[in-house]
Amino acid sequence: MKIVGWDRSIGNLLSCPGRASHPSNEDLSPGTPAGTGHPHRNSTVSLWLKAGQALLLAVAVCFTLGAADPATRYTTLNHKLMCTCSCAEILGECNHVGCTTSTEELGLLQSGLDGGSSDQAILDSLVVRYGAVVLAAPTKQGFDLVAWIAPFAVFAAALLGTILLIRHWSVTRPQMEPQPAGPEMDALRERIRRETGADGGFEA
Amino acid sequence: MATFGSFALIIALALAAYNLLAGAVALRLLATGQKAFISPERLADTARRAGIACFFAVTAAAFALVYSVYTNDFSITYILEHSNRALPGMYKFSAMWSGQEGSLLLWAWLLATYGFVLRLTHKMDVKLYAYAGTILAAVQVFFLSVINFAAPPFALLRGQIPDDGNGLNPLLQYPEMVIHPPMLYLGYVGFCVPFCFALGALMMRYPGEKWIKITRGWTMVTWLFLTCGIFLGMHWAYAVLGWGGYWGWDPVENASFMPWLTGTAFLHSVMMQEKKGMMKSWNVWLIFATFLLTMLGTLLTRAGLVSSVHAFAQSSIGMWFYVFMLTVLCICIFTYVLNRSHLKSDHTVESLVSRESSFLFNNLVLLVACFVILWGTLFPILSEYVVGNKVTVGAPFYNTVAIPIGIFLLALTGVGPLLAWRSTSLRSVRRNFVVPFIAFWATVLVVLAVGDRPYHDGAFDSGQFYALVAWSTAVSVFSAILSEFLRGGGVIRRQTGKNLFASMLLLTRRNTRRYGGYIIHIGVVIIVIGLAGQAFNRNQEMEMNLHDKIVIGPYTLECVGFSDDANANYNSQFALLDVYKGGKKQFQMSPEKRVYLASQQPQTMVAIHSVPEWDLYVVYEGIDPANAHPIIKAYLNPLVSWIWVGVLLIIFGTGIALVPSITPGMAALRVAATRSVPAEPALHGGQP
């Protein structure tokens, strides 16, 4: 089912965007004066765009292929929970034989799944029983939301602040008068070029 | 021995206090030019000698404690609680840091050792060393006060002395635990030295960047110790805790990681100060923050501020650390405000696309990562305080928040070296980035083709998505670093006529710091590749009777026996598993579970078979009481060994970066010598 559904998407990708947004040389020709359309350049651009399309297509196909696994939900949920026996381990990774807490928690999780409850309902029922500490991460509601927002907010603010600061520095820095290059400087530059044989990433 | 140790500690405190007072008075006299009954130089020298003597006093106390452990002196409460007669000799030594009092003594001894080296090498810059030595003495006074008054390691037992002790925590009875804590402490304590130099240089308005050059070696060695300590801890957690992982985002793990991040930021940003005279205030605050974070780490370990698996060393000395940290912070702020005019930058960043700005962004991301970890570590306390509801901030939170930041940082590792100082032109960017760009997308395709599925079963799998991005970025960064080596090596090859490998070797020797740094970056890339493998971990659990089999990946594990054993220290249960691959027996594994007699605590001994593709990791979880069959859990953890290889590369790279570069003059001589070697060995009597 999934493959068939995605076949249609693949078909769309193949037929529409490339032609619509990146016309070929022939498509360009009616509106382009003869001799000014840079046919070689256009064909290169078109080639690159097609290569890009193919790459995106390959990535999209590979991204979405996957086998169904009925145990995934159980594993995903038991990795969102903690064992509350004070071992400070993720429920699905608690390895204490005879740990009554993790056995009980896993039992509740399994019965919730068997009973057809949603993931959120199962998590909620465990929180009611064991408290919020049973969740391996803060929820995304109320004050807990602050835990999630703060890191990204700080990151964004710091990034923006740094960019603005550098721009401010580059705008306000005193401009130096270009010095006329003397023969010594020319000789030095020539020697550097000769010795390196390449510009080593610096512009001449 | 207890009396000897106690007296040694009191004498050490007195000597440190004299060092602090006499040093402070001497520096004040020197600064103001006031007359006194003794010359300030002579007074400062007596202070320095007191600091040296303090080292011997603390060493005597440390020796007394170790001697008491080995002689089973259970009249000392600490020895009674952390050792027993049957404890193997190697672990008796590690009893020194298994409890709070002993680990504080270890801290004080390492601090005294660093101080000893610092005071012996004072002739490099007498005045700056006097400042640094005096500040270090203040830190020593704090730790020795805690040891003498709040957590004495030589406290005597009241009442009848038992025949045997309670034994060492089983988690510590593992070879790596003999070196992991001292390594970590060497890292923690070591950051005190650059801190003292930074604060001292700021106090005396020290001209130039000499203090940074002096502390560079200290900082790198300290950073290396902390790195080794962290990774030894990871390996220990992997091999001992038996949950199949190596990093659990435990608060105490986080506490060691935070100063590492700020220390790493410092190691990068000092280059900006050395080369461009920039980021002076930033550097000073980075090292202040690093020192305070090491203190916070100690506080988290000791004060029970947050719940942690490292509960063996908790106590109530938190208030001492709160007061000390607050005092240090106030002194840092006061000194900075007073002398901040001294820290004006000589230059500013000129372009957003330049080597300077990449350093700035690198620092920014490292600090944000540090903030994220601090935030996650302290959020349970904040939540309890604000809404009265304690929450858990575990691996899912950090994996969501910290991994994207980590990948961004990794990408910067590759971008930075490709940018020119001051400003980089678009043409240069295009030319330098084409290889990493192609490497990135080629890796994306290969990884997807091999089987990575970021979207499957109708859901987005963040683990596999991050693995895809991490591997692709890692390969891209590796290609960027390699192209730097190849480009530089190519230039030298043209100059000298040597082969490419020899040219790259010479290139590294000419600029050990830069290319040592690149090797460290390659180590980081390899570690990231290993870490990303975690997204594909698999496991199987089974109660095994004789000849039962577990199939995991390409391996089939057959139970061929299970039994138990005993010695004076512990009882153990173990299983023997034959491992088959492709129908042929490859090797045998023997996972084990021990119960230590003195403490009656259980301990897992995991069996690990490591190959470059993955680790086969087998845990003996225990016995089913109903039928006495062992319960075995087998994991297949991809690419774990890459992490340890990456660490070795980091150690190697740091070693190279610490070696002085050969100067251009020396290099020219070597080239000339190479060229003057005659082609015919016969000219020298046939000797090549």
Can you give me a brief rundown of this structure?
Chain A is mostly helical and 204 residues long.
Shape of chain A: elongated
Task: Report the C-alpha radius of gyration of chain A, rounded.
Answer: 31 Å
Number of strands of chain B: 12
Structurally, the number of domains of chain A stands at 3
The major beta sheet of chain B can be summarized as: 6 strands, antiparallel
Keywords:
heterodimer, A: 204 residues, mainly alpha, 3 domains, 9 helices, 62% helix, elongated, disordered N terminus, disordered C terminus, B: 688 residues, alpha+beta, four-stranded antiparallel sheet, 20 helices, 12 strands, 11% strand, globular
Protein model, in words:
The complex is a heterodimer of chains A (204) and B (688). Helices cover 62% and strands 0% of the residues of chain A. Chain A is mainly α. Chain A is elongated and about 85 Å long. Mean pLDDT of chain A is 69; it is low at 1-37, 64-68 and 198-204. Chain B has 688 residues and is an alpha+beta fold. Chain B folds into 3 domains: 1-173, no CATH class; 174-343 and 354-412, no CATH class; 537-642, no CATH class. Chain B has helices spanning 2-32, 40-70, 77-82, 89-94, 100-120, 126-150, 180-190, 192-203, 210-241, 251-276, 280-303, 318-339, 355-387, 395-415, 426-450, 462-496, 500-510, 512-532, 640-658, 664-676, and strands at 455-456, 459-460, 538-543, 549-552, 555-566, 570-581, 584-589, 592-596, 602-605, 607-610, 614-623, 630-638. In chain B, strands 4, 5, 6, 7, 8 and 9 form a 6-stranded antiparallel sheet that branches. In chain B, strands 3-12-11-10 form a 4-stranded antiparallel sheet, with no helix packed on it. Chain B has a two-stranded antiparallel ribbon with strand order 1-2. The longest helix of chain B has 35 residues, at 462-496. Chain B is globular, with a radius of gyration of 28 Å.
